[in-house]
Amino acid sequence: MRVKRRRWRPHRSEEMVHSRAEWLEADGLGGFASGTASGIRTRRYHALLLAATAPPTGRVVLVNGLEAWVETPGGAVALSSQRYAPDVVHPDGAERIESFAAEPWPRWTFRLPDGSLIEHGVLIAPGRAATALYWRLHEGRGGTLAVRPLVSGRDYHALHHENPAFRFDAEVAEGARGLAAVSRTAGHRRARERRVRAPAGLVPAISSTRRSASAASITSRT
Fold first, then answer.
1. Mind listing the pLDDT tens digit for each residue in 4-44?
2. Does the N terminus or the C terminus of the chain have fewer Cβ atoms within 10 A?
3. How many helices (H) and strands (E) does the chain have?
4. CB within 8 A of 57, min separation 6: which ones?
5. Is residue 20 part of a domain?
6. Residue-wise DSSP of 131-149
7. Is residue 4 in a domain?
8. How far are the Cα atoms of 83, 105, 110, 183 from residue 94, in angstroms, in the given order?
9. DSSP state of 94
10. pLDDT in tens, 49-72
11. Which residues contact 13 (CB under 8 A, 6 or more apart)?
């Protein structure tokens, strides 16, 4: 798959929710991560972790996207948005995007109501079916970051509305923490098990919150 690079102009915050600009990062194995400048998924192929099982025909979406927010003294502040029928966008994280750049890797800057500036980026490891995410505080007082991955384990051509066989329990093995999702992919009657794992040291100081998400303190770096 060849992807033509283009120069990106800055987007104003009010334009971001309706932006049609898209990005794609390939892993060199037939898999990729892709999405939009607003962070709102508009295609079934938009995903943070789309792995190739037998390219070019066999690919599986393991992580569709995420919900992220920052817990501040003034309350929770969204850093992501989702689109629901009939064309409803919620929550309002995309409205806080101050800028987006596709090179050298997709990254966003968010401006919080208290003036804090947070950078978020997506990195793809060449030669591995792996995606790394980061959030970095550039300005402001900081807070507690919460991230909820949206995991499925579906064929990348299919849509996934419900999976009663999905296993929500986490597995820890060989220094990795992850999920073993049992998914029923399109065209297959029997369930397939897909594992989504992250190295234990990839995102330090992560703990479980009451909202069943991962949380980490965002503090400024000197």
1. 444 444 445 556 666 779 999 999 999 999 999 999 999 99
2. C
3. 1, 17
4. none
5. yes
6. EEEEEEEEES--EEEEEEE
7. no
8. 11, 19, 8, 30
9. G
10. 999 998 878 999 999 999 999 999
11. 95, 96, 97, 98, 111
Amino acid at 88: V
Overall number of domains in the chain:
1
| pLDDT at position 2 over 50 | no
- Which amino acid is residue 109, in one-letter code? T
Q: What mean pLDDT do residues 75-88 have?
A: 92
Domain presence at residue 5: no
Q: Cα–Cα distance between 128 and 199 in angstroms, integer? A: 13
6 domain-assigned = no
Concatenate the DSSP letters of all residues of 32-88 into one string. Answer: EEEEETTS---STT-EEEEEEEETTTEEEEEEEEEEEEEEETTEEEE---EEETTTE
**pLDDT tens, residue by residue, 162-184:** 777 777 776 666 665 565 554 44
- Each as own residue / partner, the long-range contacts of residues 37-40 (CB below 8 Å, 24 or more positions apart, any chain) are 37/8, 37/11, 37/97, 37/100, 37/102, 38/81, 38/94, 38/97, 39/65, 39/80, 39/81, 39/93, 39/94, 39/97, 39/108, 40/81, 40/82, 40/83, 40/89, 40/94
User: Tokens standing for 202?
Assistant: 């990839």
For residue 47 the two structure tokens come to 């995903």
Domain of 110 in residue numbering reads as 13-218
What's the token pair of residue 196?
């989504």
Please state which of the ranges 25-29, 136-140, 187-191 shows the lowest mean pLDDT: 187-191
